[in-house]
Amino acid sequence: MADRCYLEKCRDRLYPEFVLGGIAMPSDALGKTSVRYNSGLDVLRQTPDFVDDVRRTRLDGEFGAAYRYLESLFNGRNPYMDAIQRNLDYLAEVLRTGRWPMLRRDPPCFTWERNPVQNIRSLVIGHLKQVWKSS
Q1: b vs e for 79-116, b when ≥16 Cβ sit within 10 Å of the residue's Cβ?
Q2: Low-confidence ranges of the chain (pLDDT < 70)
Q3: Contact by Cβ (8 Å): 67, 81
Q4: How far, in Å, CA of 105 to CA of 103, rounded?
Q5: Domain assignment present for 109
Q6: Would you say residue 57 lies in a domain?
Q7: Which end of the chain is more exposed for a tag (fewer CB within 10 A), N or C?
Q8: pLDDT of residue 135
Q9: Does 28 fall in a domain?
Q10: Own/partner pairs for 34-39, CB < 8 Å, 24+ apart?
């Protein structure tokens, strides 16, 4: 969440993972498909609530606010939490204005594949076609 490219990664990489993992469009016991995330932009629209939940349940809860230990090293400041807040503030501006091109970073993707992002996009398109064909 503190990564400078977090927002672009949510839009461009997390959404495809959600599609391929069955999270974006889960099926119930009867095989009926519902849409939880309809696009990478929709993932971003839901990101502020996700971050609030993670802060409360994981960072402050399960991890016992261990991130606060950084503050003694940075005169009371917390670069980790500051970076998360900068991302949320930037996202709030994008959401407020609808200026999606503000998310212009293109972080590298390191895997064994030659064109990993393009390959995943192809898999996602194929998966979406199958889901909508069977619906």
Answers
A1: ebbeebeebbeebeebeeeeeeeebeeeeeeeeeeeee
A2: 135
A3: yes
A4: 6
A5: yes
A6: yes
A7: C
A8: 63
A9: no
A10: 39/15
Task: Supply the range of the domain harboring residue 83.
Answer: 6-22+36-134
Residue whose structure tokens are 């993932």: 43
pLDDT digits (tens, 9 = 90+) for 102-115: 999 999 888 888 88
Structure tokens at 106: 């293109």
**Total domains, the chain:** 1
Three-state SS annotation for the chain = CCCCCHHHHHHHHHHHHHHHCCCCCCECCCCCECCCCCCHHHHHHHHHHHHHHHHHHHHHHHCCCHHHHHHHHCCCCCHHHHHHHHHHHHHHHHHHHCCHHHCCCCCCCCCCCCCHHHHHHHHHHHHHHHHHHHC
